[in-house]
Design the sequence.
């Protein structure tokens, strides 16, 4: 796992240092909330560590990107995922077969969850590692009210990234001192944080 974290951070870190970092944040958030799962949370955290004074700007940008991507995913699911006869469109088949995180098994699971929990799954999905694009597309497919979808997504995603920002701000000084020269320490911190999030997410989605 340490090697995996090291590769992930070595790939993301240079992007966070470029002058295009804010644009990359918005575009990545858009993609992650629609059809291309990306490590947006890791990138967001790195930006916060590197530029703690821009915490509120990063929250605003990531939420804007996420909202735009979520609405794109919603309307993609609503208009371009299922044919009138109930079959998948060619686009849906391509994404299910070629994009990581999407599959027929995941689709069936999400369908069952929506049938049981309706829009409440939107809140639960925020606290899980599940790519939000799957949820946004599924919301369109299963005709969740678009206003309810938009408001719930806005509130839940804002809370999520604000919580991450506060957490990072609390531990940011120590993380910044370790970031470049000491991979082992940052891997331990990242692994600990992900473990905490995973435990919390299990308790949140236990009813599902």
Sequence:
């Amino acid at each position: 796992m340490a090697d995996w974290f090291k590769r992930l951070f070595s790939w993301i870190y240079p992007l966070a240092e470029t002058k295009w970092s804010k644009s990359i944040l918005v575009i990545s958030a858009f993609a992650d909330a629609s059809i291309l799962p990306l490590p947006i949370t890791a990138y967001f955290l790195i930006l916060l560590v590197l530029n703690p004074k821009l915490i509120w700007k990063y929250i605003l940008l990531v939420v804007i990107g996420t909202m735009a991507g979520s609405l794109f995913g919603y309307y993609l699911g609503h208009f371009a995922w299922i044919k009138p006869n109930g079959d998948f469109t060619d686009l849906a088949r391509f994404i299910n077969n070629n994009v990581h995180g999407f599959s027929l098994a995941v689709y069936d699971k999400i369908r069952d969850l929506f049938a049981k929990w309706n829009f409440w799954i939107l809140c639960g999905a925020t606290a899980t590692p599940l790519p939000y694009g799957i949820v946004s597309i599924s919301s369109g497919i299963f005709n969740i009210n678009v206003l309810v979808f938009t408001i719930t997504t806005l509130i839940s995603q804002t809370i999520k990234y604000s919580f991450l920002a506060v957490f990072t701000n609390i531990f940011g000084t120590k993380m910044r001192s370790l970031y470049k020269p000491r991979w082992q320490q940052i891997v331990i911190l990242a692994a600990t944080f992900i473990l905490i999030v995973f435990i919390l997410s299990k308790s949140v989605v236990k009813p599902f």
Summary: The chain has one domain: 2-205. Residues 2-205 form one domain.
